[in-house]
Amino acid sequence: MPLSLSQRYEIVFLKLYLLGPKMSNKAISKYIGCEPKAVRYWLGRWQENEDLSNLRKTGRPRATSKKTDLKIVNIAKREQNITSSDISNVLKKEGVNIDPSTVRRRLRESGGTYGPPLKKPLTYRQTSRATTHLGSTTSTLQLGQRDLYR
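That's the Transposase Tc1-like domain-containing protein sequence above. Prediction below.
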C-alpha cells in the first residue's frame, strides 16, 4: 500500500529534522507500519530534491491530440455506419496519419462502442443476381404437393 503524503513527511521528520527524534530506518518503519525499503526510498527522494509528491508516470506519449480525438468522435457521430478504417482514411486526407486500431481505442475512450456488425448488409443487386442465376439453372420436379429442386 502506498504511503500518504503526510506519512512521507513524517519519515523525513523522524530521521532528518534537527529537533526530531532522529530514529533509525527500522524504528521508523515499525512506527509508521511500512517496509524499511520504503523509508530508505523516501529519505533518498527528500535528499535528492526535497520533494515527496507523486512523480508523473513516464511512458509513450499519445499518438493523437485532444483536437484529433474530438474530430474522430464527431466523424463517428455524423455518419452512422462508418468503419474505423474509413475514419482513418478521412483523417489521412486531412493530413493526420492514424491507425484504425487507434481510432477504435479513441472511440471506446469517448464512451462509444465498437464491434463488427452483427449481420452483413444486404446488397439488393448482388442478391437479385444470385437468385436469378440459381433460378435459371435449377429444374423443378413435381412430386405431390412439394416442389423439389435439383
